[in-house]
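Supplementary notes for students who missed Thursday's class. We covered one full example, reproduced here. Read the sequence, then the structure, then the short commentary at the end.
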Amino acid sequence: MLFRLLLLLAAVAPYAFADVKFTSPSAGDTAVGGQLLHIAWKDSGTSPPISDLQSFQLFLCAGGNDAGSFIQLTSLVSNGVFSSGSSSSGTVPVSIGASVKNAYFLKMISAGTGGTITNYSNRFSLSGMTGTFPATVTTGLSGLSGTGGPATENNIAAAGANAAGAGGSVAAGATVPYTLQTGPIRYAPMQGKPGTKITAKNVSPQYPTSSVRIAKTWLPTPEAITTQTVSATYSTSSHANTTHVIWGSVIIA
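Structure (token representation):
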């Protein structure tokens, strides 16, 4: 029994280091609105490893812990990369919220292989704020106790989930039309398998046309970072082209 337990621990050891845990601001801290907010994080101890994450977006939020009970107030980092370190900073405009104890927390959306993971910080306060909160935030804050933030949202496939080709979150994401997808990672369906003969007489588009809008002003920074395509479940082979052209005639060697 002990031997089997040791084998299990050895199997999960590679996943001991994990996604983001915020270390600053600390739970219950008070920062000053209008000034630079210093943010730091470390591995949380829950898979996926932070080394598997490439880029992130960082937002300041306020409200409750349940979905729909809080809002994103402002973007602090729009295109961050983990290779730059485990800290960042951003200025909080004083007009975006009120000075309510423990009303604020951070939201980080990280992109990794197989999807995204969203981590939230503990709650903290901001002094010197001059704005007001909408009803969504005040309702979410009512009856809230403690300094914990919302639960982590892990949308990254477990290790090996896509090993079979079309499994895991890549295949699930590809079922949503590309133009309706959001977030830093987009998904595409498996490439179609070509036939061995050309039999079509009257061809038509495989997919309907998409709408086009001409930009008349500067567009915002794209949020899509990469596209992941469902792996093919079929195999292909190739051989050298043995066709030779001599004086305009085609001779098959």
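Commentary. Residues 65 and 150 are 4 Å apart (CA to CA). Residues 1-17, 158-168 have pLDDT under 50 and may be disordered. If anything here is unclear, bring it to office hours.
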